[in-house]
User: Which sequence fits this backbone?
């Protein structure tokens, strides 16, 4: 099968994890970018990328790369592309652009507009009519990446962002993006080799993604469709084969999810039911302060409040309590905490072994690892 140049977009800090995932599904010539991983692969790799990658937000297939001297030449080069290979006059389309370091385009809207004119004129001259733009529900999604005097034109194979797995109906207060949650879990290297606990689970994103990883449930299992299904070369049999080729994994340990709020826990349970992992997670309403779970050598991931709704003093107290509980109740486990509140993280009172920079939406965060060793290595707990 023909190989294409591909780019998978992700969240900042997850590039290496995504590259590992891409290697595992057969991607070739993998290189890391900024919030993106570049690689090569055939149609099967494109389908697998969308269906299996847990840390990709979208997957682009490059169709053209060119340089241009001015806006007129940009328009002409866009019009020279053989668009009929990629869309018909009856299909709707949309163009998403990003522009950087360009003397010709001060904003991405202008680049999209010029490319749209070029596509419309290409079709009008060839067929006497043109395909329509649909920003809500486009059948074909075109991606333009303008950097300086160069432009990469790609087809977006995903359509709606891949973090929309299709299982979430309840949002909760500050839910993690599913791609970030999966990335946080994979960064710990946890794949189901021990118990897992999220004691502040909110709408349940971390335990649900953990259950999907532990049982090898594909990221796209509940997703209804992808943009590549509207491509001219769409191969339904190949997609069916990709979907049938994943095997469920046996998981011998427990996934625990708890939260102080009963209504948040209900949201988590509803989402878990939708993801068909409800009976794979042990839920309970509990203040972390009082939580007792027989966890040994387990993995704990906490996404505590960052303070948007709490007073500063309360937040320090909360983080102090988390550190104290980890130290005294959860010795012998491995804990990771994600927070944008650098000041509050100090109140954890433990020395992180690893600090990773991540973004939760627009919020710059630290993702800290605390090894809660007991016995001989107790000196690690301060
Ligand atoms: C940032 S949200 C977690 C969001 C979650 N990761 C998600 O994807 O939906 C923080 C959660 O901590 C919970 N929480 C706050 N204080 C707590 C405590 N003392 N014990 C247990 N949970 C607590 C809140 O109810 C809230 O659901």
Assistant:
């Amino acid at each position: 099968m023909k190989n294409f140049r591909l780019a998978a977009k992700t969240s900042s800090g997850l590039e290496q994890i995504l590259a590992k995932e891409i290697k595992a599904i057969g991607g070739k010539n993998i290189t890391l970018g900024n919030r993106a991983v570049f690689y090569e692969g055939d149609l099967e790799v494109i389908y697998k990328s969308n269906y299996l990658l847990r840390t990709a937000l979208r997957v682009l297939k490059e169709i053209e790369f060119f340089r241009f001297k001015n806006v007129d030449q940009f328009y002409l080069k866009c019009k020279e592309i053989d668009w009929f290979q990629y869309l018909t006059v009856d299909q709707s389309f949309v163009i998403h652009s990003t522009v950087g370091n360009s003397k010709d385009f001060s904003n991405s809207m202008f680049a999209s507009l010029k490319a749209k004119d070029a596509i419309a004129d290409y079709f009008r001259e060839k067929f006497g009519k043109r395909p329509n733009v649909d920003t809500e529900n486009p059948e074909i999604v075109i991606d333009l990446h303008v950097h300086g005097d160069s432009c990469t034109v790609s087809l977006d194979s995903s359509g709606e962002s891949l973090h929309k797995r299709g299982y979430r109906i309840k949002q909760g207060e500050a839910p993690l993006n599913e791609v970030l949650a999966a990335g946080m879990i994979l960064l710990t290297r946890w794949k189901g080799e021990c118990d897992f606990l999220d004691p502040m689970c909110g709408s349940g994103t971390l335990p649900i993604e953990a259950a999907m990883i532990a049982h090898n449930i594909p990221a796209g299992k509940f997703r209804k469709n992808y943009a590549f299904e509207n491509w001219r070369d769409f191969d339904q049999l190949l997609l069916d084969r990709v979907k049938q080729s994943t095997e469920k994994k046996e998981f011998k340990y427990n996934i625990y999810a708890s939260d102080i709020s009963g209504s948040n826990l209900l949201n988590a349970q509803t989402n878990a039911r939708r993801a068909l992992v409800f009976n794979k997670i042990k839920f309970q309403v509990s203040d972390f302060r009082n939580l007792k779970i027989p966890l040994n050598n387990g993995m704990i991931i906490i996404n505590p409040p960052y303070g948007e709704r709490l007073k500063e003093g309360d937040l320090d107290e909360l983080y102090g309590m988390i550190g104290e509980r980890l130290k005294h109740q959860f010795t012998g486990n491995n804990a990771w905490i994600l927070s944008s509140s650098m000041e509050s993280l100090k109140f954890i009172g433990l020395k992180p072994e690893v600090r990773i920079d991540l973004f939760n939406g627009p919020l710059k965060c630290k993702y800290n690892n605390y090894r809660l060793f007991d016995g001989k290595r107790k000196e690690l707990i301060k």
The longest helix spans residues 108-127. Confidence is low (pLDDT under 50) at residues 377-382. Residues 172-176, 199-203, 205-206, 259-261, 264, 287-289, 303-305 surround S-adenosylmethionine (CB under 6 Å). The domain at 178-215+250-380 is CATH 3.40.50.150 (Rossmann fold).
